[in-house]
Design goal:
By secondary structure, this protein is an all-alpha fold. The chain has twelve helices and no strands. It starts with a helix and ends with a helix.
């Protein structure tokens, strides 16, 4: 039962990680296992052998669902980006905006310290500046082996480090960071091509993967300490990142291989926007179900063992 539950959690984390707007960390937070997720990552490099085994088991279960979810979503997203870009962008906005009150409700105690509001402003400005400074210039980046240069390899590596740091935070998504850096669509396309056995994209995915590992090793201890010792400031900073990411999402269509105008009121879709809210409501219902139905069963199984 625990394996199935964690696999479902990993599946939904992957769906969130694959789209700009909501991070896998946000989903972990909404579903109530964020602290366990961060703790498991932390003990993989800082815990004793027993804790490492426990953490690895939890992360492996999540990983199975994550791989299934990512593989499923990438194939769908890659095709929709060419035909339904404004509908998808509206969906991403909905996911991001409707997740804000969920985070604020869960962290209402931390948000009572209004003296930490400047950290929210820092988060907003940081994302906005990164979006403006993005070197993509609205042009899609070719990441195939034929176009891979040392400078591009370093850029992808660093972008992956930053993206994974965003993914583990319950705030701005790693996909949003990739969108800002002009790498979101190229990486999605690269994964899709690799899944279809096009090995021309394998080197860039390796570089991206090493960047992800480096980011996890470098950020987890910092995130854990910040949440443990400076939670109020961290929560305000996360909210700021989420608010700032709205600008990056609106500009998303400009990062396509065939750049399109940014999302406007004329191209905005209310239906897809509210669909994002419905999805988050469904995840909240799943959290309530696991807390009231599955967790008592898991506790009984542990007592029997």
């Amino acid at each position: 039962m625990e394996f199935v539950l964690n696999m479902i959690r990993g599946f939904f984390m992957a769906l969130a990680d694959s789209v700009p707007g909501v991070s896998g960390g946000t989903i972990a937070f909404i579903l109530g296992f964020y602290d366990e997720f961060i703790g498991s990552l932390y003990v993989m490099t800082h815990g004793d052998l027993a804790l490492k085994k426990k953490g690895f088991k939890f992360l492996a279960n999540l990983g199975v669902g994550w791989v299934i979810g990512m593989g499923s979503s990438v194939n769908v997203l890659a095709s929709l980006f060419t035909t339904q870009i404004y509908q998808l962008t509206s969906l991403f906005l909905g996911l991001s905006i409707f997740s804000l009150p969920l985070i604020m409700k869960e962290e209402r105690e931390a948000l009572q310290k209004v003296s930490k509001i400047p950290y929210m402003l820092i988060g907003i400005v940081l994302v906005y500046v990164i979006a403006l400074a993005s070197p993509s210039g609205g042009q899609g980046i070719n990441v195939s082996i034929e176009s891979l240069s040392p400078l591009l390899a370093v850029y992808i590596f660093v972008s992956a480090m930053i993206a994974i740091c965003a993914m583990v935070l319950p705030g701005i998504s790693g996909s949003t960071m990739l969108l800002i850096f002009g790498l979101y669509v190229p990486i999605i396309d690269a994964i899709k091509e690799f899944l279809h056995m096009n090995l021309a994209y394998f080197p860039v995915l390796c570089i991206f993967g090493f960047g992800v590992l480096a980011g996890i090793i470098g950020i987890i201890r910092l995130v854990k300490n910040a949440l443990d010792n400076h939670r109020s400031a961290m929560v305000y900073f996360i909210v700021g990142l989420m608010v700032g990411s709205l600008y990056a999402i609106v500009q998303g269509p400009t990062t396509l291989k065939m750049p399109q105008p940014a999302l406007s009121f004329a191209t905005f879709s209310w239906v897809w926007f509210f669909a994002g809210g419905v999805l988050l409501a469904g995840l909240t219902a799943l959290k309530n179900f696991t807390e009231h139905k599955l967790h008592p069963q898991l506790n009984q199984e542990e007592e029997q063992d």
